[in-house]
Amino acid sequence: MARLTLNRPGSANGLSVEMLKAMHEAVMVCHSRADLRVLILRGAGANFCGGGDVKDFVSRGEGLPDYLREATAYLQVVSGSLVRLEAPVITGVQGYAAGGGGLGLVCVSDFVIAAASSKFLAGATRVGMAPDAGSSVTLQRLVGFRRAMDIVMRNPVISADEALHMGLITTVAADDQLDQVIDNLALTLAAGARRRSRRPSACSGTAWGSASRPAYPKRHGPSQNSHA
Description:
The chain is α/β, with parallel strands linked by helices. It has one domain: 2-enoyl-CoA Hydratase, Chain A, domain 1, CATH 3.90.226. The chain has ten helices and eight strands. It has a five-stranded parallel beta sheet with strand order 1-2-3-5-8, sandwiched between helices. A three-stranded mixed beta sheet has the order 4-6-7. Strand 1, helix 1 and strand 2 form a beta-alpha-beta unit. The two termini are 23 Å apart. GO terms for molecular function: catalytic activity. This is Enoyl-CoA hydratase.
């Protein structure tokens, strides 16, 4: 069993290029472990992930467009690496799961356990960006075309109960029981078959597999096999 924690609580675990590179390296280590049964993905502090690190973006000045392309490409690689991981991915959500970082990672997880007080938000179109982390594919597969369009274009704040009802998440847990519910599920999965096929479509290049392709040409970011 492995645990991967987004650990920038002071910025709501906002994703920078440096953080995404570290995530990619960690997920690739998981790929190298034939004995891995389960990967648990969490965010430190009050929020799972607030999306991109807006303060970091602002500090880039005229270099922002190139930086955003690089960050988006790395996020796409991270999400694709999670899709192709043979061990199931359990994501635990507290606070906000927003933007391509938060909602996108939720969408490529196998199981999502959300605290009762948690909230979900797409957010990309609020700042003139397209949905990333493959969520233009995965969100539609989870909740259907009409609802996905509403989530992406209107950007409603979605409660945990609403997310459960629409099929975005697996289970809602009481806030003070989130850790225990996640651990119980992880132990149950780890007790099963040593290796399991997570998503056959990830190998065929359709469905979730489409979400694992880079969003930009290679010159803007790492290749799919890069150890950033």
